[in-house]
Amino acid sequence: MFWQSFLTVFYILLIVSSIVVIVFDNSQPNAKMAWILVISLFPIIGVILYLLFGINNRSHLLFNRRHRRYTALLEAETSPKLSELLSGHTKDHLVRAEYQPLARMLGTGFHPCVSDANAFEIITEGKRKYELLLEDLRNARESIHIEYFRFGTDSGSEAVRDVLIQKAREGVKVRFINENVVNFSLFPGYYGRMRRAGIEVIKFTDPRRHLLELPTRLNYRNHRKIVVIDGKIGYTGGMNINNNYFQIWRDTHLRITGNAVAALQFIFLDSWIVGGGHLDHPLLHYYPMLQASTMEKAPLQDKLVQVVQDEPDGREPVIQMSYEWMLLNARKYVWLQTPYFAPTEPVLNALKAAALSGVDVRLMIPVKNDTIFMGSINRSYYRRCLEAGVRIFERGGNFIHSKTFVTDDYLSSIGSANIDNRSFNLNYEVNTYIYDEETALRNKEIFLEDLTLCKEVTLDEFKAVPWYRRFWQKLLGLFSSIA
């Protein structure tokens, strides 16, 4: 009798205390409700799952603690030129006046500001990225910094790894950040061979360094795609390293030269230092753009670029906020591409507000997804968008993995972040914002090219979907905020 009463009281206290913790959490209200539902239905399992996957890390204390080594290094070894380049906001005035508030918002706190003197290539074919990347890696002279979400054992991944190994043996310093939770299927020897060749490899989630934090960090992923070669050439965007991206899927990526590479270097080094990595030169060595004597021929283009990182232990969800700002300030059109569409309520409301105000809002999503439930989750949000006037296009052909937007023939974004809670609040992401009419028109052309493989989803067609399919979609949609 005693134990029965004890377990009953424990059971009630467990549920009540968990709900209190969730209510005071900084998560989105819909995520809180989803977790409360899970814990109410399955108390023990629900609490364990919440500890593993639900805790919101966005707080000043945690941010400062995790990034303390890097901020201390910056304070000790920066220079006026580097500070101006990364956070001086001296180029904000070059951005069109109506977009300067966005540039200032994206450049607050620990985020790089707008840079000029940039050239880049927009890459829409995996084969092109594969060829360019291998060529640039082979030509590396001093350093290769590489940080990817996916890195496999297929022929494309092996080719990249072989070049990294060869360059390390030639004396080039190769630093590799391993997103080990997602790539857990790769056997340890895979990275052992890299280490024996002289490549420095660190685990993004390392139980030896973060043992006490590990249970609450398993749900956070390093979803970034970054390469920095000799501090002069950068790659970022949506493409990972494997044959799906190199040979099959449609995706969008950037090869950048110019001052924006400093922001990519800044973001990589942050991850590297926070993860326990070390540098063998003073910090300024990794920013050759500060030294006029080491600069290559000036780029033929002079584009305004802002590379912005986001992470669950950052102060604000800046990428989500950029989508909200862009949608609410658009005047003519906003065209977006994403493979995973499970928007947070603020972004969903901004999408609807833009469409209801007469803005041409178009959303492109793959007709078939690469994960079993994502197609249904995507469609669980269709009706609310369609009723507000958002035009939705499902692209056939090869799976489209692009995460882009273009608006009003001026602002473009190409990055790693999807339009979902995971990218906005749980993943480590990086998006590149380009303030330029020519680039916007090019991204508009790319969207229209993809549109030829699309079928538009109408509200009448969506209403005709059998009730049981719509019920299944809505049921999965309930848990999209915590997936």
Keywords:
21 helices; 483 residues; Endonuclease, Chain A; 16-stranded mixed β-sheet; 3 domains; globular; alpha/beta; two-stranded parallel sheet
Q: How would you sum up this structure in a few lines?
A:
The chain is an alpha/beta fold and 483 residues long.
Number of domains: 3
At the third CATH level, what is the topology name of the largest domain? Endonuclease, Chain A
In CATH, the homologous superfamily of the largest domain goes by the name: Endonuclease Chain A
Helix content: 40-55%
Structural class: alpha/beta
Name of the top-level CATH class of the largest domain:
Alpha Beta
Strand percentage lies at: 15-25%
Shape: globular
Put simply, the count of helices is: 21
Reported CATH architecture of the largest domain: 2-Layer Sandwich
Could you give the distance between the termini?
40 Å
The radius of gyration over CA amounts to 23 Å
- Major β-sheet profile: 16 strands, mixed
